Amino acid sequence: MTEVVAEPLTPAAFAPFGDVIAAEGEADRIINQGNCARFHDRARLDFGPGGRAGLSVFRAVPRDLPYRLEMMERHPDGSQAFIPMSAHPFLVIVAPDAGGMPGEPRAFLTGPGQGVNYLRGTWHGVLTPLHAPGLFAVIDRIGATPNLEEHWLDTPRKVRAR
Prior knowledge:
Layout: E1 2-8, H1 11-14, E2 18-21, E3 29-31, E4 36-38, E5 52-59, E6 67-74, E7 80-84, E8 90-95, E9 106-109, E10 115-118, E11 123-124, E12 128-129, E13 135-142, E14 149-161
Parallel strand pairs: 1-9, 1-14
Antiparallel strand pairs: 2-10, 3-4, 5-13, 6-14, 7-10, 7-13, 8-9, 8-11, 8-12
């Protein structure tokens, strides 16, 4: 089985697939009488024609590393943002498109205070918390048309930490 080694999540490494959502770098504005730093517009949210933004809460079963990657999915009509509701890291798996199917996967481990936004059409693994409670706020497209494609890999991958 081919291995994928999870790397630290950085904005530069993740940019082809989406956005790292974090309060990093200089704040864009100081608000609330000087008591709050606003890190403004941190994700390229896209809900496509006929869609609207929805905010849901997901509770996912924690997984262990090494993780067996068998399936990837994408959402052709809208972006999807995952914001953890705990301080625990989670595993992020993405792949470039290779003719309508996932290319070679890449894996990232989030750091404290990091979430991700997958760009519209980005192949990604399922939500993979590494610790309970596995709670996430999810901002994605709500609409009447299907917005999910799944692809089962011919050869599963083993994803491990460095």
